[in-house]
Structure formats: structure tokens, C-alpha cells
């Protein structure tokens, strides 16, 4: 017998809807549901695979913590199936966007993973295993390990540098005494697009802290289809076109560092120009890491 595939599931949902039968695929778990006899029913195509009863999982989190957990970035949930743990895809799912989280899950064995990442890319992780029983509620606390402050010497931003295309304003004048988030981007590449999405997801927090947010477009990275306004970034965000890559070269020189075109280059500096955070290339959770800096 041919094993069911994702195509089979999609076809089934489409066929049900064509016949005016409500049906959907849960994007997180991959399960298929069809509405019949005034209730949603789980549908399985695997031969001999039983439909298991549900239990309830409640995940609590101490809202007094400064870190706002985000699925995939800070925590994941997986179920043990066929000898391995299969992680659910709850990314951007409102069911895991607000604590306490309440999920209806099949009976089974589960793994809750949490992680907190340092600016150098290393992470502190925690894993907890537990069972979900039919008709019972299981409560778990989301415990994210706190980061011990690592002293990193990234150098200083040149506050007297005259910013291109900004009427000869210096960095100090442009930021008006606020901490600075400075992002050199290549909008044609996925790592920079990911950064734009990440910062946009934390727009409200950056607005509340009134950080200066500056995105810099190097001269050789301009693309005619890049629309800065579509990203819904923090309201105070500005885009600077770096003619001749003068600002990028200034940062590289002033921090005595090297840069191999691995965009985005992200720098967060306090109001005195002291660099508290620096990263380049693809990275998960950049926005939340910066917001943890004091």
C-alpha cells in the first residue's frame, strides 16, 4: 500500500471544500480535520493508525521577565513519533503568541525545549520531557535560562562621522543622544530580509525605548525593487544611502575589524557610542537579543 503524502492531505482538504464540507490542515501539527456531526473530526489515512484522544497542555511564563519568548527563537514543542521527536511548526501562530498558552494535543510523549542566545551565537538550552494523558490538563512553566553577561570589546562608533545624504549631520546629531541600532543591509539577500522581518516584529518595543534605528544601504547593494516602507519597521526608522560605502568603511576602520560582505552587519551602541552588540550574516532572534541590552 502506498503511504499517504502531504499531497494526499492537501487533496483531501480541497475535495472536502469543493463538496461544501468544512476541512482544514493544522499548519503546526500537520493533522487533517473535517467537520461532521456538529464537531471537528481528526482524519488519518495511515492504515492501522488509531485516532488518539486529546489532553490539554498549559504553558505558563513569568511576564515580569524582560525577554518576550518567541516560538522557534526561544522555545519549541515536539511529539515523539516513530522513534523520533517531530517538532510542531507554530511559527507566527496566535495560539502560542500569548501566555498562558493552552493547546489541545493528542495523547503521547512530548518535549518542550527552550533556548537563550548570546550575541556571539552560542546558546543556553533547556529540555523537559512529559506526557499528555487523555482528558487531563498538564501544566508546564516555560523556563528560559538567563544569560550571564559576557564582556565583549567591540569598540566605538565614530559619533563625529558625517552621515551621507543627511545634510552633513554627524552620527551624534542624528541620534540626538539616544542609543543607536545601525544595520547595513543587502536587501536582495535572504539574511537581510530576515533581519528586516525580525526588527519589524519588535517595532513596538523599539518605539517605546525610543532608540535611533538606522538602516544603511551601501551603494553597491541598491536594487530598484527595494521598498523600505513596506516592512513596517519602528516609526523612527530611517534609510540612509551610503554613497561610496563611506559609512560602512568608517565603521570597519573605527572598530579595527574586518568585514567580508557578509550582510547584514548589525551594530547596537549606547548613547556614548560604546558598541554593546555586533553581528554579521544570518542570525535568529537579533531583535530580542538587542532588546535585552541595557
Kindly describe this structure.
The chain has 294 residues and is an alpha+beta fold. It folds into three domains: 1-51, no CATH class; 52-147, Immunoglobulin-like (Sandwich); 171-291, Glutaredoxin (3-Layer(aba) Sandwich), CATH 3.40.30.10. It has helices at residues 6-18, 171-175, 190-201, 203-209, 246-254, 286-291, and strands at 23-25, 32-36, 39-43, 54-60, 75-81, 84-87, 101-106, 108-117, 123-132, 137-141, 180-184, 212-218, 238-242, 265-269, 275-280. The strands form four sheets. It has a five-stranded mixed β-sheet. The chain is elongated and about 70 Å long. The protein starts with 5 loop residues before the first helix and ends with a helix. The mean pLDDT is 89.
What's the gist of this structure?
The chain has 294 residues and is α+β, with helices and mostly antiparallel strands. It contains six helices and 15 strands. Strand 14 and strand 15 form a beta hairpin.
Mind sketching the topology for me?
Blueprint: H1 6-18, E1 23-25, E2 32-36, E3 39-43, E4 54-60, E5 75-81, E6 84-87, E7 101-106, E8 108-117, E9 123-132, E10 137-141, H2 171-175, E11 180-184, H3 190-201, H4 203-209, E12 212-218, E13 238-242, H5 246-254, E14 265-269, E15 275-280, H6 286-291
Parallel strand pairs: 4-10, 11-12, 12-13
Antiparallel strand pairs: 1-2, 2-3, 4-7, 5-6, 5-8, 8-9, 11-14, 14-15
Amino acid at each position: 500500500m502506498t503511504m499517504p503524502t502531504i499531497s494526499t492531505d492537501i487533496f483531501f482538504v480541497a475535495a472536502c471544500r469543493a463538496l461544501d464540507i468544512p476541512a482544514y490542515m493544522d499548519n503546526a501539527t500537520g493533522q487533517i480535520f473535517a467537520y461532521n456531526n456538529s464537531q471537528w473530526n481528526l482524519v488519518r489515512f495511515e492504515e492501522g493508525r488509531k485516532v488518539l484522544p486529546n489532553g490539554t497542555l498549559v504553558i505558563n511564563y513569568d511576564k515580569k521577565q524582560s525577554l518576550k519568548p518567541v516560538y522557534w527563537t526561544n522555545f519549541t514543542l515536539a511529539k515523539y513519533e516513530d522513534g523520533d521527536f517531530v517538532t510542531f511548526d507554530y511559527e507566527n501562530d496566535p495560539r502560542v503568541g500569548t501566555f498562558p498558552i493552552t493547546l489541545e494535543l493528542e495523547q503521547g510523549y512530548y518535549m518542550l525545549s527552550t533556548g537563550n542566545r548570546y550575541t556571539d551565537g552560542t546558546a543556553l538550552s533547556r529540555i523537559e520531557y512529559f506526557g499528555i494523558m487523555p482528558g487531563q490538563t498538564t501544566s508546564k512553566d516555560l523556563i528560559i535560562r538567563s544569560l550571564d553577561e559576557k564582556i565583549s570589546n567591540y569598540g566605538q562608533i565614530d559619533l563625529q562621522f558625517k552621515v551621507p545624504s543627511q545634510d552633513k549631520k554627524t552620527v551624534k546629531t542624528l541620534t540626538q543622544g539616544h542609543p543607536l541600532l545601525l544595520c547595513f543591509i543587502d536587501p536582495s539577500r535572504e539574511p537581510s530580509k530576515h533581519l528586516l522581518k525580525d526588527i519589524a516584529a519588535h517595532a513596538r518595543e523599539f518605539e517605546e525605548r525610543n532608540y535611533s534605528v538606522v538602516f544603511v544601504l551601501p551603494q553597491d547593494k541598491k536594487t530598484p525593487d527595494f521598498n523600505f516602507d513596506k516592512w513596517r519597521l519602528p516609526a523612527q526608522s530611517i534609510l540612509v544611502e551610503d554613497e561610496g560605502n563611506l559609512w560602512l568603511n568608517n565603521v570597519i576602520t573605527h572598530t579595527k575589524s574586518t568585514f567580508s560582505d557578509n550582510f547584514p552587519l548589525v551594530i547596537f551602541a549606547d548613547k556614548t557610542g560604546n558598541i554593546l552588540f555586533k553581528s554579521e550574516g544570518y542570525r535568529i532572534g537579533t531583535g530580542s537579543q538587542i532588546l535585552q541590552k541595557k
